[in-house]
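In this section we turn from sequence analysis to structure. A common task in structural bioinformatics is to predict how a protein folds when a small molecule is present, because the ligand can shape the pocket around it. The inputs are simple: the amino acid sequence and a SMILES string for the ligand, here zinc ion. Study the lines below before reading on.
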Amino acid sequence: MRSLFRKSNYLSTLWYQLLVEFGFLKLSKAELDVLSTYFPYYHRLSLKFQREFRERLVLFMNNKSFYGRGGYSEVSVEMKVLISATAIKVLFGFPKTITLSHFDKILVYPDRYYSSHSLQYHNGEVNPKYGIIVIAWKEFIKGLNNPTDGWNVGIHEFAHALKIENKIKYNGEYGFLMPMWWSKYVHLATDELKKIKEGNSIFRSQARENIHEFFAVSVEAFFENTIAFKAYHPEMYECLVFLLRQDPMLLYTGVNVKKDANEKEEGT
Ligand SMILES: [Zn+2]
């Protein structure tokens, strides 16, 4: 088994940031083709934000190590681009410095896999101890192919990673989820968890396990079931707009999905 070494560190991130900033590191034509063909979120951004998306994507891809598992000898360009683009979609409202740097290894399985850790089959997983995010490709593609069913393994796992990264202090990438909005969100989520248990909620049943699962499932709904989510629970939707610092609803109106980066940031 190949050893999993830490690829991302402060210096390597800084180096890649400089290469991107000065235009020495860009998406290849093949990578751009995959992004343009299969990732609608990118198309709905303004040209200015599309450029930012590409820069953040190439930085993310270069800062992570991708490993094939379960029969995959390598991870294809298509897999790297679409998995990374899903991460950037979740992160896009935050400053460029938020890159989930603790999670520097991404493992890709062909299909659902058996986890020796949980002794269960999984579509994906986040392992903070080893800085690993795991994705089952077949399930990931199912989620990508249906962008309006509120079910997306990639968004789900990156939402888990985001919540964990927010608490990890050693790399300076923490505390970016505004506490005031998180407290309000947890308060609302606690009530909603009861509704899920009664079978009376738009959130799918996986959300009822705990607040962490609820958060990941609600972020899936935020991006994929946007209009219904906002109509069903506008207060919770608003919390996620402020927590993730972007509003997918604006994609439907043709307005930019987040504030201009030059505008003053609210909170930390
Ligand atoms: Zn989960």
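The pocket of zinc ion is lined by residues 156, 160, 213, 216 (CB under 6 Å). As an exercise, try to locate the residues that line the zinc ion site and compare them with your own expectations.
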